[in-house]
Amino acid sequence: MHKLRDETAATAPAPGGAAVWRLNAAAAFPSRWEAFLSEDERRRANAMADLAAQRQYLAGRTALRIILAHYTGRPPADFEFTIGPHQKPELAPQPGAPVWSFSLAHTRGMILIAVGFGGPVGVDVESRRRHFRNPEGLARRILTPAERDRVQSRPPAGRPELLLHYWTAKEACLKAIGTGLSRAPRTLQIDFTNKTEAAWNAGPGADSWRISFFSPAPGFLAAVAGRNPGLRPALLEFPLDLPAAMVV
Length: 248
Fold this sequence. Notes:
The protein has five helices and eleven strands. The chain has 248 residues and is an alpha+beta fold.
């Protein structure tokens, strides 16, 4: 098995669970890892005019391959990806193999990679210092009437934090179901269980989605969405100093 670190050997998510890996996209990136990428991934990277965006894309895609190799025992270059109906990248299924899902999010040089086993997963991350230029307009665009009422019931100083929680929760759910922002966020009703957990009921006969909030680093808020009622994602640090023998 491809191990990222000895202590991560037992970190494979339980069915319906998730593990979240944190990666510093601004750190030195081993160029040898690019050999793991497909021709399409390299072509996408080369087409990016912004060097920071290119570096972030390369870091995320190669780290994803190494993480999947860690859990499955397959070589990092062996994975094939397909594109869903809303342009969401997915791992191509293999007959008889466990179903793994993943989701990537990034902000200010930080990349989060959520990996789930046995069910879809979505992740989003935002800076707590993010300034909403028009919070009222954003609230009308992304919140249901009941959610807007809840935000307005807070003292003004507490409204941006609650709005940020709604935003990250909805982004995570929309990534998990594969639509992204092609589906209007205001069509999701998020109900908070406590300060670190929330739920989205997708409708009659549909499974409820669980959302777990956490801070991947001081000053940041992240949310992970999945169907497991006991969703408790583990946060792991992805090392950029891996010996070559661990990832080939």
